[in-house]
User: What shape does this take?
Amino acid sequence: MSRPRRVHVVGAGLAGLAAALRLAESGVGVVLHEAARQAGGRCRSYLDATLGCRIDNGNHLFIAGNHAAMDYLRRIGAADTLIGPDAAAYAFLDLAADERWTVRPNAGRLPWWLFQPSRRVAGTRARDYLGGLSLAAARPGDVVTDRLDPRSLIFRRLWQPLAVAALNTEVERGSAMLLARLLRESFGAGGAACLPLVPRVGLSESLVEPALGRLRGLGAELRLGSRLRAIELAGTRVSALAFDSGSEPLAADEAVILAVTAPVAARLVPDLTVPDEFRAIVNAHSRLAAPPGAPLFIGLIGGTAEWVFRKPEVLSVTISAADRLIDTPAEALAERLWPEVRRAYGLAVSALPPWQIVKERRATFAATPAQQRRRPEAATRWVNLLLAGDFTATGLPATIEGAIRSGDTAAARLLAAHR
Ligand SMILES: Cc1cc2nc3c(=O)[nH]c(=O)nc-3n(C[C@H](O)[C@H](O)[C@H](O)COP(=O)(O)OP(=O)(O)OC[C@H]3O[C@@H](n4cnc5c(N)ncnc54)[C@H](O)[C@@H]3O)c2cc1C
Assistant: This one.
């Protein structure tokens, strides 16, 4: 197919936004369709009536080494909306041992920080980290516990929390290869790449609203509340898109990037294999400010809460691979998590502050070796239909970085088409 004149991008999550942005920047006409009334998909902020303030649907952590995400933020003019410490620092608290430490990788690639006990996980030796190298040799079928010793202290205090957060999958089932790729792009690239960053205000303020503004400025058409019901196919092409509002025929020089979730893509595209196993993420937000100067986030070992993030108006807990908690009543969860939050940030208040629990049942696909094999490429057998989304074959787990790369890839394929 020749380079299209106009592209319908369906789905305004980060994959769709990234694809739309690349195309609009290259002078291609873009129509961005989003079923919801709000863009951002699984990465968005909203006003929570119970708490009386804006919250993110889930805590999202970036690292400076997320090069596609950093590039996207620069291009939408939002690079300065992320905040983080001056140097890479990951604070932890082991609840059972009542022990705190901060992992501080040095900026360069040569990891001399491993030889300074004050920069390592408490109780570990430099040689314990060598285990991480065995991940580099992971085979496609390996799970994390095949490659890293789950009985070791460093596993419990570092590899496990990192793996569960990054893969959103339990270590006994999570793909060692996917974790290896992530660690190569973070710790393997030196401390500068590991610099943790979070939105100063919220996900929508950093990643979504500036992108919509930039797209409008480039002349893209944004259609919120526009749900795609069916794709009409004729031979090797998409011939029309059927929305709730009616059918839209596609001219010969028009193309589609389908940037919806995996289950929706499977419903719309015949014979498409996509990941079909998912994991939940639970977030618990409490309306309370952290003491000034406290870390932006703290990893908790041995509790129910896994990470606590300090936001402008809330303290917010993340629990990944949280399927075991999906049926736990919200009240009981809040009661269970609150003492852990209080300890993490050393808070004097004992009464439970106003709280909100957000359970995302299908937060991401399960990053298992079997699901990894089900991830589709961007190209389909229809010349003017491409796929984007965190579930496509990005080589990364379901992350913002993966979603943005998938959008970039789909757009690049269309832009590279012969004129
Ligand atoms: C609670 C939570 C915490 C997370 N934490 C992190 C983190 O710390 N770091 C990280 O990197 N990643 C994290 N992630 C993952 C990250 O949010 C996702 O990988 C990323 O947002 C996926 O983007 P996407 O565009 O691929 O999909 P989505 O965001 O799901 O976008 C798909 C879009 O398509 C729309 N759509 C669906 N059907 C239709 C239709 N028929 N017609 C039109 N539109 C349609 C949807 O409404 C949606 O807006 C987290 C996810 C969750 C849920």
